[in-house]
Amino acid sequence: MKSHISTTINGDPVEFLCDPSQTLLNVLRNDLGMTGTKEGCGSGDCGACSVLFDGELVCACLVLGVEAQGAEIETVEGVATHDQLHVIQEKFLEHAALQCGICTPGLIVSTKALLEENPSPTEEEARYFLAGNLCRCTGYDKIIKAVMDAAATMRQGA
Amino acid sequence: MSEAREFKHIGQRTIRPDGFDKVTGKANYGADLSLPGMIWGAILRSPHAHANITKLDVSRAEANPDVLAIATFEDFPSVNAAAQRDGTQRDGMMDTACNILANQKVLYHGHAVAAIAARSEAAAIAALDLIDIEYEVLRPVLSIDDAISAQAPILHETMMTQGLAEPATKASNISARMELKKGDIEAGFAAADVIVERAYDTPTVHQGYIEPHATTVVFNENGPSMIWCPTQGHFDVRARVAQLLNLELGQIKVVASEIGGGFGGKTTVYLEPVALILSRKSGRPVKMEMSRGDVFRASGPASASQSLIKVGAKMDGTITAMQATLHYEAGAFQGSPMGPGCMTVFTPYDVENLYVEGFDVVVNKPKVAAYRAPGAPQSEFAAEMAVNELAKKIGMDPIEFRLKNAAKEGTQTIYGPKLKVVGLEACLEAAKASPHYNAPIPENVGRGLAAGFWFNIGGQSSVIINLNPDGTGTIIEGSPDIGGSRASMQMMAAEILGVAPSSLNPIVADTEHVAYNQTTGGSRTTFATGMAVVEAAEDIVEQLKARAAAMWNVTAEQVDFKDGVAHNLTGEDQLTLADICASAEKTGGQISGRANINARGAGPSFAVHICDIKVDKETGKTDVVRYTAIQDAGKAIHPSYVEGQFQGGAVQGIGWALNEEYVYSKDGIMENAGFLDYRIPLASDLPEIEAIIVEVPNSFHPFGVRGVGETGIIPPLAAVGTAVAEAIGQPISSLPCSPPKILKLLMSAQ
Ligand code: FES
Ligand code: FES
User: Is the overall model pTM greater than 0.90, yes or no?
Assistant: First the structure.
């Protein structure tokens, strides 16, 4: 028996039917066609599926679709406004903080969570906060530089 | 390339053209395509490391209404199962077939046996239970020592060792032996004052790309079938699928999706042919995805190795002889990177007397795939460790020792050619001058330094550049972009055409829209495809001159083209590229440039890395506290992405040296097939990775490019190994330097 779920994704009201065992990641990608959120492991170990769930950073592969009932979900598709990139996204591009880019959606969402929680992280704090987001291409150097620069820019803007 | 040239775009740090889509989640990767009517495939995998399949009956699965198609080895029409068993057909394609769907024998834990397509992913997975299968379990062979011992079970009854002095007379787990030599190795060691001889080993590791293998396919009886997949070489996917399924190349179109990392691991096929069989049988589009566990158990990995190294030198620091015996695990089927391992092992050194022997050994592990400079990290790790030990014995600084023996222009390599102009000495000098090397070594910290060499390749690339009536354009290339190469293509074309890089949109076309391109690998893309882009742009320049000449009623020789503007040499007239495009209709139609090349003259890239490591003597835990990667790029087209290659390679090498390894039970079950237990480096594990770009141009490329993608993974193994050895005051001979191993070394010293 599928459940009928009403939720909010990136500000839009969304309804879907889902199997009780289906993960939120599976619903987003396979039922709603929102493939911006990536799957690297399906077991909570890589962070590619990072989304904000009522403002909390979670792995969408560890959340069930049915749990989305009444929740506010934000995915990478909701970070930019129209064609205006978020500062974090701009800084990732400026600093060449992506190579293949498969980890990028998760990192952008995680960085947003980090900077909402701590607008002035030290480099070490940023590295520990983002330790759940695996990147195999970059060695993290340029990612951390982008995050620190985004934090500084956002502090100036605030 | 003699004098330094002034560039407008090359060397700038532009925003990559595919960046916007990648930071907003719009870019489509391997698992991101779904089609109407699509069904899902799932694979039944062996729970055993080594077993005969005594029964495989799919009739119960077939009877299930959810199941729309089933595939087994028998569905490869071009592959003769009997011939494979009796040894009359034993080639790479047969091995590929047996690897992606086992033929009566499973050779590793996770080996694919059969596939089912059903209406949903869950239904496909559930239906796997309906396949009746029985195994006769055999003893697995899990190490080189075991595989080459007299008692070892033989994986392939028809495998005879190739390359022996006398032809082999009985089956063996050693598929091949090779030998390379130069000079007189005995005399070389006789002339040495000091000799270091040591055995080293490295573990099985995985490329660890974050994107699992995935594909969506549609079989089409009346036109080309379509395969969508993340691959480093869609033309190669097309060739392999065509061969396996007895199709012509023109019957298959492969679309390279965006690719979430490859590092060499996405240069072969696993799911694609199976999915196409399922689609053909069901008449539906089929999607398949590997789980992370499948990725570890049944794709990649890189060879485990054992190396015996002997190096001799005089007290003045001259190396007189170097010798290596190298064993590489190939996994379940022959074909480790033993060859490049043997060829690269001593290439950073200009030494008279060399001898290298290599062995390719099959074991009950997944068939290895290329991993960044395949074969070189293992062998050069061993060589660099021995060189460092020798330098220390003689009392020489490791940079001075290397400078005294460094390979340079004219050095005769062991594998054939003499080196052209190379940048090893320049990298060593840059290391000597670097802030890192000049900083004092902190307390409780060990410092290690190592060099690395990789050939780089050229090969076939095809490019079309189309200009639009307003002067913008499209660069149509066929090299899947695994690290930002579209940005470089844009910049190189813009440099020649004298337009803004952003006015040219680079796309990686499918196999139908551009002619053949070799796989993205061997660090070839910026070099070879870049060269094709330059030639296609030059082709356009010639046409622009002719068009301008037509408009001015002069000859093409009377027109000069510079920085995007045509000049009439007989007068004052000027036309911009956009002006000429706007009038193209009147001067002969629209303008396209084209190049189909087989690029020669790839320039090797050398690197030198410096690593500082702190060891916690209580727990054996290691921390990289400072790291510098120095490498010769020839010319850095986009310095940020060049640095990114150095940094990414360095960190993969650090993971290889410190943490990563496949852990098998004695029955050959992989016990750490997930990112929690197979631990790749995290952001919190690492310091900044300082990247220093050295530029010693490669005269064969119009801008001086050498490939940079691979060399960076080579030096970290010995730089880290040496740093740990220095920190604990004990030789390191086995990777990874994981805490239990380090602790054991520390305790044995007390
Ligand atoms: S896919 Fe969710 S953490 Fe990896
Ligand atoms: S950019 Fe490829 S995994 Fe991070």
Answer: yes
